[in-house]
From TrEMBL:
It is a multi-pass membrane protein. This is Mechanosensitive ion channel family protein. Belongs to the MscS (TC 1.A.23) family. Residues 135-176 form the Mechanosensitive ion channel transmembrane helices 2/3 domain. Keywords: Cell membrane, Membrane, Transmembrane, Transmembrane helix. It comes from the Bacteria. Coiled coil: none annotated. It comes from Aerophobetes bacterium. The lineage of its organism: Bacteria, Candidatus Aerophobota. It is found in: Cell membrane. The keyword Transmembrane applies. The keyword Cell membrane applies. GO terms for molecular function: mechanosensitive monoatomic ion channel activity. The chain crosses the membrane at residues 12-38, 59-77, 89-110, 136-155, 161-190.
Length: 348
């Protein structure tokens, strides 16, 4: 009995027993994650849980093992200085593994979010942004890890942190416009105001199709000129945008047509409605409408309102409708007026 008691109070036995308990627990959790949780995750429709479990099993195993090692060292009759050095080494390794896990989860979150934004920024831009965000995040995590480890080992990092802060302020002021555009691009991607392929109209009047959404600028292919409009993202963030692709790609068109005074109003309406019904691209629901809007100086003005199934074909459909309306009105004997002016001369 005395032998058992002496063994139990022996510091080396306590250290070894503690390490064995933590080692067995780490092995159990590792096998549980590897053989049970991962197999269960493979049955789920998403691959996200598979990726997480496959990447965290080894770090979790080593974290538990290091925790057991740190506790076991406290039982050993070692000099305080040696214990302090060993403890700092173990904590440094724990910090490295912890930073790795944090960086992994943040990178996975960013990748998952950008994957959902593929329609907004495109596949190629999506891959570039994922790679760029990974490099920036890993760089930031590396800087933080170095600062934490230096502080752990008693190195004064106040001057280093202050220098980094001053450098950040200087860089921010020098790149103020660029950073505003970058943050504007990030905000546009997060907000999902538009995506590649959408037809938008800017506050300045330019209209076109979105062909690229970058971090610094957005590129628009003009419908009127066919050229490329490059707009800084900070400007887009602070301006009003009309997106004809939301909530649907259908587009409402209003076309004004004038006929001569004396024309039969009902006949004009019926003719214009038949023209709209004959064009395949014009939707039947909602049905086209014709309104008598004005008795102008030279003509009776009508407004035809209809919806087309694709906003990208707006000019083509408009051309078809106006051409067909002119032919039908002429065939019905309805005249299209032109501006006239009557001049009276007084004889003396």
């Amino acid at each position: 009995m005395e032998l058992v008691r002496s063994v139990l109070i022996n510091p080396y036995f306590k250290a070894a027993f503690t390490f064995i308990i933590f080692f067995a627990g780490a092995k159990l959790i590792y096998r549980l994650i590897t053989y049970t949780a991962i197999r269960w995750a493979r049955k789920t429709p998403t691959r996200l849980d598979d990726i997480i479990l496959s990447r965290i099993n080894a770090p979790v195993y080593y974290l538990i093992l290091l925790a057991g090692t740190a506790i076991a060292i406290n039982f050993l009759p070692l000099p305080v200085l040696v214990k302090g050095v060993l403890s700092r080494i173990i904590v440094s390794i724990i910090l490295i593994i912890s930073c790795y896990l944090v960086a992994f989860f943040l990178n996975l979150f960013i990748k998952t979010y950008l994957s959902k934004a593929k329609d907004v920024i495109g596949t190629i831009r999506q891959k570039d942004l994922i790679a760029l965000s990974r490099k920036l995040l890993n760089f930031v995590m590396l800087i933080l890890l170095v600062i934490f480890i230096l502080a752990l080992w008693g190195v004064r990092v106040t001057a280093l942190v202050a220098s980094l802060g001053i450098a950040g302020i200087v860089i921010g002021l020098a790149l103020q416009t660029t950073l505003a555009n970058i943050f504007g691009g990030i905000a546009l991607i997060i907000d999902g105001s538009f995506k590649i392929g959408d037809f938008i109209e800017l506050e300045t009047g330019e209209a076109g199709e979105i062909i690229d959404v970058g971090l610094r600028s957005t590129r628009i292919k003009s419908f009127d000129e066919g050229n490329e409009i490059i707009v800084p993202n900070s400007s887009l963030m602070n301006s009003k945008i009309i997106n004809y692709g939301r909530p649907e790609i259908c587009l409402k068109r209003r076309i004004k047509i004038g006929v001569a005074y004396g024309s039969d109003i009902s006949k004009v309406k019926q003719t214009l409605l038949k023209c709209a019904e004959e064009i395949e691209e014009i939707l039947k629901d909602p049905a086209p409408q014709v309104y008598f809007t004005e008795m102008a100086d030279f003509s009776l003005n009508f407004e035809v309102v209809f919806w087309i199934n694709d906003y990208k074909r707006r000019l083509e459909v408009q051309d078809k409708f106006i051409s067909l309306s002119y032919e039908k009105l002429q065939a019905q004997g309805i005249q299209i007026p032109f501006p006239t002016r009557t001049i009276y001369l007084e004889k003396r």
